Amino acid sequence: MEKLKITGGNQLFGEIAVCGAKNAAVAIIPAALLVDGVCRIENIPDIKDVRLIIDMLVQLGARVTYIDDTTIEVDSSNLKTCIAPASLASKMRASYYLLGALLGRMNRAEVSLPGGCNFGTRPIDLHEKGFRAMGANVEITDGIVYAQAQKLCGATIYLDTVSVGATINIMLAAVLAKGKTIIENAAKEPHIVDVANFLNAMGANVRGAGTDVIRITGVEKMRGGSYSIIPDQIEAGTFMLLAAAAGGEVLVRNIIPRHMNCLTSKLEEMGVNITEYDDSIRIERNGKLRGTSVRTMPYPGFPTDLQPQIVALLSTVDGKSTVDENVWDNRFQYVEQLQNMGADICVSGKRASICGQKLHGAQVTATDLRAGAALIIAGAAAQGVTEISSPHYIDRGYSDIERRLRSIGVKIERIFEAD
Ligand code: UD1
Q: Which domains does the chain have, with CATH numbers?
């Protein structure tokens, strides 16, 4: 059995660079299916979810060439099927982007219902609503989504809930559709803008990404081109929270400081010293921090994907804090693991009430990707040794995590034990 072993309690110093954004990469790589030509995608993170989506493209008939660890070229000129490999698609959430991309390119798609982290019900009704409004017939039978259209036509689609996945999927379906598509109440996350920029760099006509109304005018064809993915807002935030929890002074490089505003202001409120540069942020924490209240919201609000990590930090901070989860129904399952480390957290519905404590090392389990990141933060701040089981969840979203964290002083290693 594989585990991450962390010996906590020491301060962190040095520099750490952020990789390309996971949630942009897992949308942009399938978006390359829409392009009739070769597209070069740079700054892709070397993580499990990206390797999985690349495998799926290859099985659909795309030619994918690795130029180096973070750059690929995708040639989708000769796709051979619109049926996504079920065994792979069901392993990750972002496989739903194959629906929009294949429907847009081939007018037909068959993709298993997506897997991914379990935060309660994760419906795709808004994706379906968008495809149907554009003229597609969408049915779900035995866990497979079948979508088909004669020719997709532009439509005005209002999203009842702000959904990252539905916004991107509808953009993907719309870029080659006939006429104009308008997405109202669209999500505004940085990776929505990144996907739109990628599509435009390949010849699409997408306007308004980053606002709540996105207008897409369908084009005949998209040509090849080159595009570099933005830095990962969530990885950057994880490193900032880690530095705040362990203390010391860390420069987080390759960051877009504007994307971090919601976190930067929270950390400053708590007493962390933050200095912003053009593409890096310095975190300094020497003294004691104060508790605070956090509410997760769609961007530009506080991201739900940093919720477990900030709960880990607040578990170590003197005083009382509250964290309200407003995006997912059930995203506090990991709390029990922090409680094993001595955290005083009480969950009632969508609110976690936290009373800061000194944490101690313990045997814990990563229950999902960001929960795993939270346990790393708690482990680095705790006294003693923490061993985190199921690190494969962490590998889904963080590349080469032990080596990178060791470079700023985290005492972390991967250990293998006989089962
Ligand atoms: C994406 C991210 C995930 C993040 C989430 C919210 C990827 C691959 N994953 O997930 O890490 O936690 O955004 O920032 O980018 N909803 C519906 N119907 C739908 C779709 C969503 O009701 O058809 C609801 C969901 O139940 C949830 C809310 O909308 O309450 C937001 O979900 P959404 O933004 O779609 O999340 P994902 O795209 O799945």
A: 2-19+231-416 (3.65.10.10), 22-226 (3.65.10.10)
Residue 117: predicted pLDDT: 63
Cβ atoms of 24 and 51 closer than 8 Å: no
- Mean pLDDT score of the chain, rounded to an integer? 95
pLDDT digits (tens, 9 = 90+) for 242-286: 999 999 999 999 999 999 999 999 999 999 999 999 999 999 998
Catalytic residue of the set 117, 153, 262, 346:
117
Burial 209-239 (b: 16+ CB within 10 A, else e): bbeeebbbebbeebebbebbbbbbbbbbbbb
Work out which ligand 1 atom sits closest to the CA atom of 92: 8
Strands 351-355 and 320-324: antiparallel
Task: Give CA–CA dist 251/283, Å, rounded.
Answer: 6
Burial 253-266 (b: 16+ CB within 10 A, else e): bbbbbebbebbbeb
Q: How does 166-202 read in b/e, with b if 16+ C-beta sit within 10 Å?
A: bbbbbbbbbbbbeeebbbebbbbbbbbbbbbbbbbbb
Query: Measured between alpha carbons, how far is residue 17 from residues 34, 191, 246, 250, 379 in Å?
Result: 31, 19, 18, 11, 21
Question: Three-state SS for 235?
Answer: helix
pTM of the full predicted structure? 0.96
Residues at CB less than 6 angstroms from ligand 1: 23, 26, 93-94, 122-127, 161, 163-166, 187, 304-305, 327-328
* CA–CA gap between residue 24 and residue 18 (Å, rounded): 14
Q: 68: CA distance to ligand 1 center in Å?
A: 31
Which atom of ligand 1 approaches the CA of 26 most closely? Answer: 8
- Report d(CA 105, CA 31) in Å as an integer: 10
pLDDT in tens, 138-174: 999 988 999 999 999 999 999 999 999 999 999 999 9
Ligand 1 centroid to residue 164 C-alpha, Å: 6
Strands (E), 316-356: 320-324, 344-348, 351-355
**CB-based contacts of 206: which residues, under 8 Å, 6+ apart?**
171, 175, 196, 199, 200, 214, 215, 216
Strand 280-285: give its sheet, edge to edge.
12-17, 248-253, 280-285, 273-276
117 is catalytic: yes
